[in-house]
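pasting for ref. prot 1 ->
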Amino acid sequence: MDCKIVFFDVDGTLINYEDGCIESTTKNALHILKNKGIRLVAATGRPLSMCHSLQELGIETFITANGAYVQHKDNTIYASPIAQEIVQSVKAYADDNHHSLSFFTDQLSMNGVHQPKTLQAMKETLSLVEYPPIDDNILNKQVYLMCLYVNSQDEQKYMKQFPHLKFERWHPMITNVLQVEVSKSIAVQAVLQYFKLRPEEALAFGDGENDIEMFKKVGYGIAMGNGSMALQNIADMITMKSTEDGIDYALRKLQLI
């Protein structure tokens, strides 16, 4: 396989879904890829500030906020910020209804509404054990993604209140609030164009349904053994779980390491 770039989902893929750690075999595999001149890209729902530990793995390109902000070293490849008036309106409505809302700039912050289910959802998706801080200046910053922590019934209220916005649920207690379409697939395409690479030269690892569109933009998609059935059904390969050296296993099977 003529592979020149590999996209890695983070939570549940690069990062062990059980204890939030990165397997030593994964670290070694990425080190080998980088030494072979293969580009490494992290594609995550996390903000950039929560990706610093991944730089130690040799990753220099980051797709963050589920594709709304992409950076290579110090260069912004792609950015799709939400209009400030929309951030202000959604924040005011969430505050009035006592719903938790988080904001993705290059950092992660929230509106200060603390609910037990919010922290549990953050732990399950971002490995957080405490609430992000409140940013009093958030309305003056570029926000790339908002996450609303509500059930599907409460989500309907927001859909009626903001019919011009898109609500994209990806967890039982979390829905993305979007002004325009953002996705890992759009970001992957921007990265490939930036490096002048073809889709067939790209490989991707993932575990969630938000990785399905990313798989469609690359030549070869590998689903983790702990991944969703929907992703496994469209993957070119299903590897072992992230707790069972899944990345190392797949790369060796493809003779890339």
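and prot 2 ->
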Amino acid sequence: MEEGERIPELFQRLFREHYPGVAGKLHALIGDHAAAEDLAQEVFLRLYRSPPDRLEAVGAWLHRVLTRLAYDYLRQRSSGRTLLEKESARVAISQENAVPSGEAEVIREWEIDVVRGVLQKLSDRDRTALLLREEGYSYEEIARRLEVNPKIVGTLLARAEERLRKKYGQEEERRDGAKNEAGR
């Protein structure tokens, strides 16, 4: 018998000896019987295509390959699930926002009016800085527009945000006070 004829026989023997253990370990690692069977076939396909140099160490080689395949499978499944969850959340949010209820629309409009009013009470520099950041301008672009040193833009924005929050809180208190007075 020639060398080329012996390799398929050797491969068949190794497959029969090691397949149950490989499939079992894969099933234990990934918890999915069908996927474990597929991955076990991939392990033996790799063994057939590029066997280890020392066939006495085939057990360790198979273990290393099956472990890598299992981790790759789990990583792909995890990233696919994360992607699916993110997409599902995005769709749910877009559906919620697609047809807002009358009450939600009134509240949203009221909040927009309050924010516009509060922005008008800020200095021109604070208002411009906040609006530019909201539109996606970089700190460098904001610095050029406001004619300030780019190093202070972060501090300028933080202070403008704080003033906006403070004025917004005052506006809410004023409106709540007016509601309470009207309710008496």
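Residues 75 and 81 are 10 Å apart (CA to CA).
The mean pLDDT is 80.
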